[in-house]
Amino acid sequence: MTEQENLLLDSNDYLKSGIHIGTKFRTKYMADFIYKTRPDGLSVLNLKKIDERIRVAVNFLSQYEPNDILVVSRRENGWKALKKLTELTGINVIIGRYPPGILTNSNLETFTQPKILVVSDPWTDKNAVEDAIKIGIPVVALCDTNNQSNKVDLVVPCNNKGKKSIGLFYFLLAREYMRSKAMLKDSDELPATFEDFIVE
Asked: What CATH number has the domain bearing residue 144?
């Protein structure tokens, strides 16, 4: 089996989404995932490690029922993807501003008790990360080369700013999660396209 066949997606499709393009800033936390720095100063993430971590994230999330998972995205580029993810899988999502106290204040009508949190960016979604730490649930985070991941349990290295790369991550998450939960047969395609996950 070639390396190509081992990926969740054709490497060209990965590359076209820009999922591997980082920023000009790199933190020590993300050094292991960086493949090289381009002449223009942009760091490039290792595609094989991106794919590996998406698989690990899916395997981890598959241990939980949809209503035990909470996915948060303050950044607009993730909103359409999260709407599609919840529609297909039943996983709970918060789109836009994270409501304070939703995980920590049981007196709120909106109080929710997930067993795991997924954030599109540990910086923009830092309030959700802080709350997850307070209540002691694991955090899975999409991390770019400039992210600090010291409060994250599982890093998925990727371009977490580009609408195509965020869309692609949630497309793969939906497909692989549904397969692992037998909501889809292995041969079945997701009843949605990659485009359905991308903000216009």
From this structure: 3.40.50.10490
